[in-house]
Write a structure and sequence with these properties.
alpha+beta; DNA polymerase, domain 1; five-stranded mixed β-sheet; 16 helices
Length: about 400
């Protein structure tokens, strides 16, 4: 090694060593040198000591074929200013290289967050990761490098395909992932904050009387009566699909006429007991009489599944057979609530039967009381207008306590 005033001409004349490398240092900027390897490669380097640790490091500025000695000297002075301020240029590069990428974040979310979710939620999130997130972000994209604009672009991309609700769900998933990344020290902020999501309106699709009649007939002739019975239970109880599909015989007390749903099957992760109607008890009694030895599930699964899981394809076939359009399986739950409301039952009673823990969840069905309320107020109007008149052939039904006819 030696110290000389580095010039481009001098560097071009530097001979290659027989092995290893040789560094010629500049006599103007301390630590700046021109390194020559045994194969003749030449590059500018800066040797420096990290403040605090005393560790000596060597930072490669660039190849001598791309950098002039003057430019390398200017860059070396900039780096030395950073080092004097406590920086570590080479350490920054290594930190960036070792920083967690999207593959690391996704893997940790799968391992630590997904097991806490319901199986159906974890499956849905996995589908969104595969179909949207990993197609938009490279697995090697650094978690800390993702910006608000990147998230917004994904939201707009999904929206352009016509999936507004799915776009919102995907942003919700990413927001949770980046919230976890903050907890795990992968980044300092959440790039999903401030993303304007689409306004969502609760569905108001209920099965109509004529549709219900056609569906009942389609269920009667459906080849797979296990699935048909599961859908009948959805109609009769207003329960969620997972609650019905995972129902066990021990959860139903046919003598008391109750169904005790365990926390694992309910959305709120709370036990929920509901009364069973006579048709529901009869359905369960028939399945109990036919169950195989040792079978614990009311609707046993196929293959390696313990209980019935996927009935979506069967539902599509049933809707086609019954000539029903735009009705989802979950709409049967809403329809159950509509039957209760149209019969004049209160929102609190509807919420209790559906297993709602928040009154605002049940409030979505308030509009269904229009017909009972109109009937009630018409009866009051008739009483007022007929006050003092002789009774006519038209019978006015008096109001009972509580405001219901």
């Amino acid at each position: 090694m030696g110290t000389q005033h580095l010039t481009d001409a001098l560097i071009r004349r530097l001979p290659a060593p027989e092995r290893g490398n040789r560094i010629v240092y500049d006599n103007t900027v301390t630590g700046l040198g021109a390194r020559v390897t045994a194969n003749g490669a030449k590059s500018f380097v800066l040797t420096y000591t990290v403040r605090g640790s005393g560790r000596q490091r060597r930072y490669t500025i660039g190849g001598c074929d791309r950098w002039t000695a003057t430019d390398a000297r200017r860059r070396a002075r900039e780096l030395k200013a950073e080092i004097d301020a406590g920086g570590d240029p080479l350490g920054d590069i290594e930190a960036t290289r070792e920083a967690p990428d999207m593959s690391a974040l996704i893997e940790r979310v799968r391992e630590e967050h997904f097991p806490r979710l319901r199986a159906s939620s974890a499956t849905e999130y996995e589908r969104m990761l595969r179909n949207y997130v990993l197609k938009h972000f490279s697995e090697r994209t650094k978690v800390a490098d993702i910006t608000y604009d990147d998230i917004d672009a994904l939201h707009r991309s999904i929206t352009r395909r016509g999936y507004k609700h799915r776009a919102n769900r995907c942003i919700a998933l990413l927001s949770k992932m980046f919230a976890l990344s903050i907890r795990w020290k992968m980044r300092a902020d959440n790039p999903c904050k401030g993303i304007e999501r689409h306004t969502e309106h609760a569905r108001r699709r209920y099965i109509k009387p004529d549709e219900l009649a056609r569906l009942v007939e389609a269920l009667r002739t459906f080849p797979d009566q296990d699935i048909a019975d599961a859908i009948r239970m959805l109609l009769l109880t207003g329960a969620r699909k997972n609650e019905v599909c995972s129902m066990q015989f021990e959860h139903a007390d046919l003598t008391a006429g109750t169904w005790s749903k365990p926390p694992a099957s309910t959305k709120q992760d709370q036990p929920h007991q509901v009364p069973l109607s006579a048709p529901a008890r009869q359905l369960l009694a028939e399945r109990l009489a036919k169950r195989a030895d040792g079978e614990v599930f009311v609707f046993p699964g196929r293959g390696d599944k313990q209980h019935l899981v996927n009935i979506w394809h069967a539902w599509i076939r049933l809707c086609k057979a019954a000539d029903i359009k735009g009705l989802r399986l979950h709409d049967l739950r809403h329809s159950y609530a509509s039957h209760l409301a149209s019969s004049g039952h209160s929102l609190s009673l509807i919420g209790a039967l559906l297993g709602h823990t928040q009154p605002q969840t049940t409030a979505r069905y308030a509009h269904l009381f229009d017909d009972p309320l109109r009937k009630a107020t018409e009866q009051v109007g008739a009483i007022v207008m007929n006050a003092g008149k002789e009774p006519s052939d038209e019978t006015v039904t008096p109001l009972k306590r509580g405001g219901r006819p």
